[in-house]
Design brief:
32% helix; 2 domains; Urease, subunit C, domain 1; hydrolase activity, acting on carbon-nitrogen (but not peptide) bonds, in cyclic amidines; eight-stranded parallel sheet; Cytosine deaminase; 11 helices; alpha/beta; Metal-dep_hydrolase_composite; Metal_Hydrolase; TIM Barrel; Metallo-hydrolase_Enzymes
Length: 400
Amino acid sequence: MTSLLLADVRPWGGDPVDVAIVDGVIAEITPTGTQAAGSQAADQKVVDGRGLLALPGFVNAHAHVDKSWWGQPWVSYGGEPTTQGRIAHERAERDKYGIPSVAGATAVLREFLRHGTTATRTHVDVDLGVGLRGIANVREAAAELGDAVEVEIVAFPQDGVLRRPGVLELLDKAAAEGATSIGGLDPASIDRDPVGQLDALFEIAEGRGVGIDIHLHDRGDLGAFQYELIIERTRQAGLAGKVNVSHGFALGELAPARRTEMVYQLGAAGISWTTVAPVNSAPLPWREMRTAGVAIGLGTDGIRDLWSPYGDGDLLQVARGFARLHGLRTDEDLTYAVELATTYGAAFVHRENHGLTPGARADIVLLDAENAPDALVRAPRRELVIAGGQVVVHDGELQV
């Protein structure tokens, strides 16, 4: 049995408490200094939290950890600035930069840890060029870090599904070998056969008992049409709670009445949403989505990959971007943005309990901030990060 006492921390900015951790799980939370004398195990390690703000570990609900050039020499942006152009550029250039690789995935996961992310749902490219090698690399990278970052994998057809014969078979094999979801990509504009792509994906998902996570960049009516197809198939297949739309830019662009109807259909079907809150996108109807039960997850998307030179792995920065895009100002709303990046991210990595509560995996982040809104707007360094009961960041420095 391993035992750790995190003393004098302020969960969500509240009163100081001591957090007792046993075998990687939060066992007890008590007001600071009230733990009964002699109740500590003889070998219990004590970490002084110095009265810092404590938040649950961040959950990155949409990442691509398999294809970063983080830590390598600078890579200049190239290729055509369209979805198809980015796909073609990546396919032409990825081997030059060793993408995918264990080292690349490890570098990204280490940056996640540095910034307090202790769980992620990551898309990993599956295509005829790399096969399932990227998935194996990501799993090895997670293992090298002792699974400090718990990783769920979405087998992702970055180059399309139907237009590349053999990709469906790879997706099915990935699902059979443990991927928790399979992905899709712009069924209308990439495969030019939205019914065909979606029917094929839902057939695999039903047969293998996995989820579906579909990248949808298409705008306006074309995007909305595909939402309708996804809603219809989710209901027919009984996959409520197992289907997610990533990006989904069209939702915020619809006329108010149609948007409201769409949101409630999504909620009734049990479909969730992940966003990276890009600055040039239309705001999501997040209040309606919250009321309708459409879960929202935040993610970093790619981290310095062949799609974009941006990104540093800090999900708190993404939460701040979400807050700014949606005009959040009150303490309640700013705290909600932080909750999206932490507690509310639990469903995206299949955790029933993710928070500063007994029984949860001990994923705790300490920051020098007054409260959650203060942490959001300043995004200070992570002073201490505990992942699965192990100290992985101390005084802002990685320990793994």
